[in-house]
Amino acid sequence: MLWIAGAELAAAVSNAGALGIISPYAGMDEGDDPRENLRLQIRRARSLTCRPFGVNIPLDLPMSGLLIDVVLQEKVNIAVTAAGSPELFTELLHSAGIRVVHVISSVRQAQRAEACGVDAVIASGIEAGGRLGRDAIALCSLIPQVVNAVRIPVIAAGGIADATGMAAALKLGCDGVQLGTRFAASVESLAHSRYKRAIVDAHDGDTVVTQQYGVPARILRSSLDAGAGSRLAQLEGDVVNGIAYAGSSAGLIGEVLPAAAIVENLAESFASRL
Ligand SMILES: Cc1cc2nc3c(=O)[nH]c(=O)nc-3n(C[C@H](O)[C@H](O)[C@H](O)COP(=O)(O)O)c2cc1C
User: Fold this and answer.
1) Does residue 74 sit within a domain?
2) What is the pLDDT of residues 31-53, one digit of tens each?
């Protein structure tokens, strides 16, 4: 989660037994260098956990190649690539012993990612917070089709915030789940308190899909895309003028919780819901 997934959140998630993911822009000021920020976040996460964690690199970022260099230099365990071709960096990352997970939103993209050698795919449904694939497929239809089409592990993302959702996704055949909005509203997330509050206050119908730079994105209904980007909402708490990404999972989130409590709740409760 571009501006808000820093070392503290990733380490707390990993320490609780899941896989925390760092974003290169986490907590950054507008003019800062994301390479330096990423290096700092990785090293800080290492000081907070001895467990594996990942780094997310949206491949459409202007500096994505340079950010991949930092991932290589710092020998991160897992790179989560998104919004671009898995052909670009998978081989390079593998040559450094780094596993690659790629975000997809259709069967065709999943097959292409597998053909490029990625280790797993994150199948993102229309319910997900943030930018979406153009295909806009609901998770419960997308997961079984992707699972049937590829042999690599499939991780479901979109609209999942609790153990019931996780159990349902696993029943559809996926191997794991990714939660975004639930962790945006966690204690360790760098999100502004107003943004966390807006997620907690959101009901079932309070997110919508809008076009952002020609790509669909799921955001809080109350936020207007005034061209100010997502930093304004995520870090400065202006959830009206900034783009406040949130999944339809927001309606399931009733309080800001420590990341460990979120992971523990998932781990403890999902088996009984299977
Ligand atoms: C505030 C926010 C920022 C996000 N930023 C990114 C990002 O930078 N890169 C990415 O691959 N996905 C991003 N996502 C998508 C999440 O990784 C995840 O797939 C999605 O949130 C899952 O749906 P959920 O929000 O219903 O849990 C973002 C989601 C949110 C809510």
Assistant:
1) yes
2) 899 999 999 999 999 999 999 99
pLDDT digits (tens, 9 = 90+) for 102-134: 999 999 999 999 999 999 999 999 999 999 988
The set of protein residues with a Cβ atom below 6 angstroms from ligand 1 is 1-2, 23, 56, 58, 82, 103, 124, 127-130, 157-160, 178-182, 184, 234, 245-247, 249
Q: Cα dist. 155→45, 161, 169, 193, 200 in Å?
A: 23, 14, 9, 29, 25
Question: Residue 15 domain-assigned?
Answer: yes
- In ligand 1, which atom is closest to the CA atom of 127? 26
Q: In terms of residue numbers, what domain contains 24?
A: 7-273
Q: Is 68 exposed, middle or buried (0-12, 13-18, 19+ CB in 10 A)?
A: buried
pLDDT tens digits, 239-262: 999 999 999 999 999 999 999 999
Give the CATH number, domain containing residue 93: 3.20.20.70
Overall domain count for the chain? 1
Residue closest by Cα to atom 12 of ligand 1 = 1
